[in-house]
Structure formats: structure tokens, C-alpha cells
Design a protein that fits this description.
The chain is mostly helical. It has a single domain, classed as Arc Repressor Mutant, subunit A. Helices cover 37% and strands 4% of the residues. A two-stranded parallel sheet has the order 1-2. The radius of gyration is 13 Å and the shape is globular.
Length: 99
């Protein structure tokens, strides 16, 4: 798990991702003071109980969903926000936040 101050940075960034948009583990890591994409993934896997963070808007650098137990739920939540996927399961690049 990332240090508490990195966790706070990661969660603050994730909370800012607009509905209908996505960002990557790497982009979030680059906006922090030293987190790695792997640390961002760990933070997403260990979200506190009862959180309201839009975890489903964080995807892999390939613009696909990471292979994890919640991938089907993540896919549905993104589709519910109007995010479309191409035939290879990728999100269009124009939906990546920030611009």
C-alpha cells in the first residue's frame, strides 16, 4: 500500500475524474508526489468501506479494463455513464482525462 499522504493524493485525483471520462493508473501516478501505477492499482483495490470514489473510471494504459474481479461491474458502471468501448474493449482516447 502507498504511504498515507500518497493515498490521499490518489483518492483526491480519482474523486475529480468527471462522469463519462476515464484516466489511467499511470496518469494518476504522474499527478502525485511519487506514486507508481502499481501503487494506484493497489489503492483502488483497498478503497475504504463506504467510499464514494469513482474507482470505475480508472483503467489500464492500453485503455482497457484491468483484469480483476470487479471488471464486469466496472464495465457496466462506465457504460451507464455513456462510455463506449470498441470491438477490442478499448475506451476511445478522447474520453481520457485530463485532456
Amino acid at each position: 500500500m502507498p504511504r498515507p499522504e500518497l493515498l490521499e493524493q490518489i483518492y483526491t485525483i480519482v474523486d475529480q475524474i468527471p462522469a463519462g471520462r476515464v484516466t489511467t493508473y499511470g496518469r494518476i501516478a504522474a499527478m502525485t508526489d511519487g506514486a507508481t501505477p502499481r501503487m494506484v492499482g493497489s489503492a483502488m483495490r483497498h478503497l475504504p468501506e463506504g467510499h464514494q470514489l469513482p474507482w470505475h473510471r480508472v483503467i489500464a494504459a492500453s485503455l482497457t479494463l484491468a483484469d480483476h474481479g470487479g471488471a464486469e461491474r466496472q464495465h457496466q458502471k462506465l457504460r451507464d455513464e455513456g462510455v463506449m468501448f470498441d470491438s477490442k474493449g478499448r475506451v476511445p482516447a478522447h474520453l481520457v482525462w485530463p485532456d
